[in-house]
Specification:
MetI-like fold; two-stranded antiparallel sheet
Length: 331
Amino acid sequence: MARRRFTDHVAKGIVTLGGMLVFQGILLGLTKGVSIVPPDGFLRIGQEFLPKSATWALGALDMRLGPPDLAAIAVPAQPISRRIRGWLIWLTLFALLAWAWTPAEMFRVTALFTDWRNMAEFGSAFLKPNFHDWDLYLNDMVVTVQIAIWGTVLAVVLGAPFSILCAANVCPQWVVQPVRRLMDACRAINEIVFALMFVVAVGLGPFAGVMALFVHNLGVFAKLFSEAVEAIDPRPVEGIRATGARRLQEVVFGVVPQVMPLWSSLTLYRLETNVRSATTLGIVGAGGIGQTLYESIRSFQYAETAAQVIIVVVTVVAIDMLSARIRKHLV
């Protein structure tokens, strides 16, 4: 009898809740935008009116059912094949590290702690930078930035069309694969190697550095830009194709607008890295502050070397801050 009375109360509460909710909908529709006081027997929760009898019925029903049994909830297990694949990846990683331990002479890591006095003695020579010829150093740094700007711009201008040819969602495989292999070759060879080649071809000076940065970054931009192209939303391109547009028009109006913000961000990032790379090209006679820096180190003029390094660091930091502001507006 007690269970039957409890069931009757719950049923009455649910019926009352349904009727009151219908009444509430009509009331809210008639008084939309008007602040009203809840009628007797109602509780106002936000913009909703809930009957007190309904809250009692739902509370009683919740007490009857009780809290859920968390122990009975089964956590789905990953398939054994997926777990084995994860273990194999970690095992391969540790095997590679063990294979490269001796050839990389990682066992000499203790020398960083046992021979720290040698490093401290060498580093103390840089604590008194000499800015006597700061104007010459600054002029060389400006030339270094100019080398990086020209190398980056040339690489972007030619890297953009090559990136389209490298994108598998735009061009067929018989075009994509040969172009990708050519860009891999440009990217695999370091700038200093290209600088040596161009120094022999065109002579000493900044132009050799420009060409070295251009060829190397051509492969880098083609790789980065093509990955952005392959990640575009295909629906705008399909819509343009449906209008009867040609393939070039699909690329210009459907692909390029989607990737332009990311392309701009990648260009600014590579400009920063090219400024740092251009400082080392002077070692092989490709102009810039790198040549002055190399001569100072060879002459054991550590005070002058410290001044040049400070100028390089300040320039790179300034370019990084400027490019960060530009990226906020582009991306």
